[in-house]
Amino acid sequence: MATLEKLARLSEPSIQGARLAREIVSSAKESLSQSQRDYAAIYEIHPKLGFLIADNQVQAKLCASLIDGLTLHLADIETSVTQRRQQAGELRKDMAMVIELLKSREVVEREFRCPPNVTGKHTLYDHIDQDAVDELSRMTGEGLEELEVIAESDVARCKLALEEAGGAADLHDSEDISVTWSAVGDIKELVEESGRAAAEIAQDSQSMDHHCDQLRDTIRDLEADDSETGDRLLSLDDYNVLLRDTDEIPMIVADLREVLADIQRRAEEINVRYLQYSAFYQENLRKFAAIARISAAVDKYVEATRESQVRYVQLLADIDSGLEDTWSLVSWYRNFHSAYDSLIAEVHRRRHAQKVLFAAVEDMRSRLDGMYLEEMRLRTGFVEKSGPFLPSDLCPFIQDPPASFVIEEAEGERSHQG
Questions:
Q1: What is the pLDDT of residues 63-72, one digit of tens each?
Q2: Beta partners for residue 165, in sequence order
């Protein structure tokens, strides 16, 4: 029964090797199954992720612009009211100063008219419309008060919108990852490569199982046969084949382990890609939600302040117009005060010019009268001396008196001499 003993010694390593092979095959199938699940998930995620990446990039820029615009709008609201309130305060001071200046300037020249409703001291202030100044100040003040109410409400809503939007923290650029179909194809190729490898080691495992079955069947046949003829049931060549196959088991198991390691390495690589895809997909979903939140917050603010903003813009225009009119009045009153000084100088200059002109006219009138009398004397003497001897029809005009001239004041400035 030496043959049985030899076969028994072959059976133990064969069975152990087949068991190890089956375990390797099981691990390979598990890794392959994991790779297939990861690939299926990647294949499903890919189009969604591709859309999110492309859309989020565009929407993120728009949202960043919306947030920047909202932030600038908030700053503009806060500064607009402050600036106009400051301008109005400065203009009130300027107006009060120029009015006091006009009140302090008394009009004493007799040529200047005094308004009929003035009973006391006549000043430049009596020639301005205080009611118009008060009305302009009242309208500007009421506009500023309404503007502040609207601004306070809109600022609160704007800050709430920025708070709800959560800023642009969730819109930062993500880590770069390839989401092209070629990258998905590379992953598919890894899965297919692992599938082919798993099929090959499954065949090797089946071959080892077949080897064990051969050993078991041969041992069973030898045990059932007559002990004297049993050794003749197994030829030396058959034994050598069994022995060779058994000796190759450790090498085959080592090869299977190398193949399993490659399958597991690819499975790990695929799993890493899946985890990247999944994490990137979740990140872009969060970004998509952040974009939706920002858009909703801005839309909510715009809708809530639609009417108030129309009124706000109108008030700004009205207030700016009122401030401009007030500044024009202040400037005009200052020029009025300065022009009054020039007016006094001009009146004095005209008085002197009129005095010089009247003196020249009186001198000319006196000279013309003297010349007329002298001419009249000469003509009278001639007529008295020679006239009686001259026929009247010889020179009829010889009897005419000399021409006389009258200097009259033409229409224009009337004399204001008292």
A1: 888 888 888 8
A2: none
